[in-house]
Design brief:
This protein is of the alpha/beta class. Helix content is 42%, strand content 17%.
Length: 556
Amino acid sequence: MLGYICKYAPIEVFLSIGTEMKRIEPSVTNFTQADMKMHPNICSFAKGVLEDVLANDYEGVILTTCCDSIRRLYDVLKAELPDKFIYILDTPRITKEAGITLYENRIRKMIQAYEAFSGKTFQEEALGELLKQHKEAQSIQLKPGKKNIGIAGARANEAILHILNEKGANVAFDLTCTGLMRKYILEPGQILTGYTRGLLSQFPCMRMEAAAGRDELISRYAQSADGIIYHTVQFCDNYSYEYAWLKNVLNRPMLQLETDYTKQSYGQVLTRIEAFLESLTPTGPSKSPKRKDITETMYVMGIDSGSTSTNAVIMNENREIVASAVVRTGAKSGESAQKILNEILQKAGCSREDISWIVSTGYGRVSIPFADENVTEISCHGRGAHYFNPKVRTILDIGGQDSKAIRLNEAGEVADFVMNDKCAAGTGRFLEMIARTLEIDVDELGPIALKSTEDIEITSMCSVFAESEVISLIANNKEKSDIANGVCHAIANKSYSLLKRVGMEEEFMMTGGVAKNPGVVRAVEEKIQSRLYICPEPEIVGAAGAALYALDQILR
């Protein structure tokens, strides 16, 4: 079995001589081998491929010269696996006749190398027969009654396709490296020439000469879809630049997904895709709500299971909050959910049987057994913010472990969002760590910052480096209030970049536990040059939004 990674790899050539081919789709838990054998700044896809190849029994691997990271991957594989067939095809950038001739010659040299390695023989006639059996993939496949989603960018992994399928969406087109919408061109007497011509006439990747026309082609495809998911590999700048340009010219909702090909990123990808699908059309109930007689008081519940706190709201049919509660999230989100359920029922003076519908949201939304359905925190925070203040258009939510910026339209629907959940920098956990270093309670950090008399800049937002920086400032006899103020402004700077990406539109609202920190609030207001609306209990905004979704299912 040979592995391959690129749509320009001539996989049909190998299939025609009886060699099994497998597209390498890395999904790893760590980069232990790759970090030892490659530079740590090599892209996560290349490192993931190395981990996959070293862990599995491939006969060899076919690579193409798509970028410097893949060239380095080739060097490492050749050194580590000298007995395997490790081959890199220098794919030409030009797609005209000269490029076709050049690539055909290079493919022939690769065939000769594989014949010598395997003892198999390639016959052009066998390739021709194989190509006759293959039907060209349809480029656009729309399904009425479903959310038709297009995928663009770089090599979308199987997790994206799995989630879309699981959520009932249809992949209308896939223009990434994994789309494999082959053009099989049969030229009598010149089978390999025609095949090569078809390879180079695929939807161009970013390194090809024809990439200049990618934007127009994507725009043309996009008109048929309800929304576009644009996938980039972490730190792959070329595709990030293309996304930024397309976002300004396409008239379709777009979601940028940046993945690192680790299994741990699945939850982040799931939340983003679910929130994107929810923003396209309202979600319906997964099962029938427990309706009550119209003369009875009706209650619904929203529960927001976050990494730091679990929050709950009980609401009646008049959209009035009957009770709310906030508890610390323990080691198991399910146990925290059960604890807050008991507490809020007692506060509301009702029983579990009185609750007609429960919607869960947040970090642990799928781990709450008594919830009737779950909705992403993006949608729930948008809904909750609109409930507390219908004038709000831009939301900054800083929770215990992630940060979000959400932009709403006039109806309170999510128009766009960005998340930062790959690092604890600028979150509640970050503030807790700084507070411990300063030997104060985290609740004291904000009030102390307001007493600052000297501007101190915290240059690093990495939790580890920032802690070292704070220790150095303490050693230099800097005041705690000045250090705390510097930390608050560092968070404000990071939050500002999130808000800029989503599009800043007044009025602004801040939610999450960090909204209780007056130092951070002041710093953010100074940065955005506008006031932040903060409701009396900013931690329950997501839970209130979840309760409103529950109410929709009962009253519709």
